[in-house]
Amino acid sequence: MFKILQYYIFLVIILCLSTVAQAQKGERIKYKAEELEYGKKKDESYRKLTGDVVFTQKSTTVYCDTSYFYKKRNVMEATGHVRIVDDSTTITSRQLVYEGDERMAKLRQNVVYLRGERELYTDFLDYDLEGEIAHYFNKGKLIDTTNVLTSEIGYYFAKDEFAQFYKNVVLTSPDFVLKTDTLRYNTLTKVAYTYGPTQITSDDGTVLHAKGGEFRTVVDESDFVKGSIETRDYYLEGDELYFDDGEKYYKAVFNVKMTAKDEDVIITGDEGYYDRRNGISKVYGRPLMKRILEADTLYLAADTLVAIESKYDSAKRILAYKNVKIYKEGLQGIADSMAYFNEDSVIFFYGDPVMWNNQNQITADTINLEISEDEMKRMNLRSDAFLVSEDSIENYNQIKGRNMIAHFVDNQIDRINVNGNGEILYFALEEGDSVLMGMNKIFCASMQIRFKEQKLSSFSVYTNPEAQFIPPHELTEEMQYLANFAWRETERPTLFEIAPYLNPDYEFIPVEVNPDDIGGIQSESQHKSYTPTQNTKPKNTPVRSLNPTSSSSVNTPTSAEPNTVKKSINKTNKNLKAVDDDGSFQ
Description:
This protein is mostly beta strands.
């Protein structure tokens, strides 16, 4: 009796296990067709269905022309006008292997997946009906109302509303094309995430490169890390990039660098902006411009640097605002603002500009510097031009005029032409430039000053010159300065002041930049300044010998031709030896 009971219990257990196994395998596929044939292949029985074949499992219905059903494995092989309908998903193809136990559909050739607003095209698609996961592995394309995405490999997770793409990924929108190797796409919000090298090319040709980021395709905005933007004329890069394609606006933050394509110009800073619509780039936060020359580098710093693009070379320029400072070997300067024209390599300085070339301090209302073949060639001083140099015993030689043109040779001042209201104060020294012999004071309409070894060598004065030599014992404080004299050596910038990162002891301190608060008031100069209370220029002063031992004088020549008074300075003897008949000093 006990053995009989054990037998029945064993049968119940076997039946239960069989039921569980059947449940694990999944529901049997149900089918119907116009014709049904039975057959056997490799010891496995099958049923061939032809003519309006329909088979179902749970909520899934499959339509095809011909099908082979393997009952033992619960597998259906279908060909000809294959169509799967599963809730809101429809998939068509030419071939299908449907695994009923795993609820897996393997579709091949001309596969089209449709779900709501999304379409997926490929030739190889595996679809998990339970998880609602579509996977293609030999190229595919996903289309929605906004974007088209293509890749070698892709996964679409319909339940979670996102897709994952790998290898040669291309996202195409109406305004740009994005390329990467790994991309995650939210099909609901249409936000794309990239996780490696990424390139975005806008419809106007602007190219963005990054190491990954987030792209909000509906509003055409994005955030990227470690990237660069390629504009018509520049490359703009930074640790973080923000991109608004709708507003045609880009932003770079931290370690910003802007490089000119056609010139050796680099601009760095903490934060940069690019207005693509107007072709304007701005860099804030300790911005620095570097103009690479053949044997040197010109550094320029300001509160704000702006690069303006144009299809016309003559209109391309770089602007600097507030607290402009420049530095190169043999030339330093400050100004309130600056304009650099790319085509001509001309730099304009505005707003109380001051330039220093070795021992010479140069000021004017406006100064422009011409660079040719990577060397300084000419400096134009417009309105109230003033040149000051300090000698070995702290006297200030001064040259003043309405306008001046300084010519450079090997980046050193070679000569200066003074046009209009020319004035000179020059201190004559002897005994190794340590003893003052007196001060020369000359007024004329125009003059030319020549330099040798960075010092004043000789000069010529033109048109009604008036000259005076004043011995040391007659000199007063007022006599030693022309009107509006100012010695501003304390404002002269240094290399480490303009480019502190070049200092080995430099310690980086991040600065928060507020684009609405760029600039500021430039502090007043702490410089030696002297302005006479009245103009002491003598009238009808005869030209005198600059030899203090001579008391002779010669009247100024009068002629219809331009008159010239020429002074030559001998290295060993600063005194003039004679006056020629034409009025030239020798």
